[in-house]
Write a structure and sequence with these properties.
CATH architecture: 2-Layer Sandwich
Order of helices and strands: HEEHHE
Number of helices: 3
Helix content: 40-55%
CATH class: Alpha Beta
Strand content: 15-25%
CATH superfamily: Fe-S cluster assembly (FSCA)
CATH topology: GMP Synthetase, Chain A, domain 3
Amino acid sequence: MTTETTAETSSPSMIDLVKVQEVLDTLRPFLQADGGDCELVNVTDDGVVQLRLMGACGTCPSSTMTLKMGIEEQLKQHIPAIKEVVSV
């Protein structure tokens, strides 16, 4: 997968929701292998992805590390307009 910087990726939009979901779908098997999952709640206008951690991820002491070092890093790599990922 290549990363392109276009007008579509310079700011969050409905297209970014689709792209975010695509990246999450590639990460989902790793979360599910440990009994967890995540749900995309929203992408704000300022580039914040809001996720709901579910299953084992919701109560795991390492969930912050998974969220920031795993999910957030992958989303930022594929979608430059993403600034942060937070759990809601």
